[in-house]
Design brief:
- This protein is mostly helical.
- About 45% of the residues lie in helices and about 10% in strands.
- The longest helix has 17 residues.
- The radius of gyration is 39 Å and the shape is elongated.
Amino acid sequence: MNFETKSEKYFIDKGYKQKGEKQCENCGKLFFLYLKRDLQRKRFCSRTCFGKINSKTNNLKPPPPDAETRKKVGKILSEKMKLGLIPKPPKSTKESKRKAGLKIRGENHPRWIKDRSKLKRSRFNNSCRNEGPIASWRKSIFERDDYTCQKCKIKGGKLNAHHLKSWALFPELRFEISNGITLCVICHRKEHKKCQL
């Protein structure tokens, strides 16, 4: 005996008698009912038909496939690729990787900030440290403080000219002599640690 649906098989196995039949509103298929309440309520032959009508009337999208379904689909695709029914995706070469990297360089990069590289270059490049306004600012700070660390009072050695107000936050005070102080390397590190806290 062939059963149309699992529910019909369930009812027949349990010994229910057929109470009536109805036509599905979605697919038009005839289906049998085994409970009296279903004669009034039931409009569809299966949950699939109900879902199709419900999605049309309420503009609903079907839920995304679960992990198990995705695995099945992936296996089917890989088998088809092995048989040659579907072409395999091309493997990435060094050239394609290089081209992809060039697409997001410079102004195309999402974190690009205009003129930031010029700012960093002017501040951290050694050639700029020994010439231009930063060099004259450092020299005037050292001469004013008599080449002495203003924290530990050690004269000479490796000295740094420290900005009292941040280089990045106060660009208008970068080359102001009143915004500078002479510190030795150790005191300069301590000063920056204080700023971070």
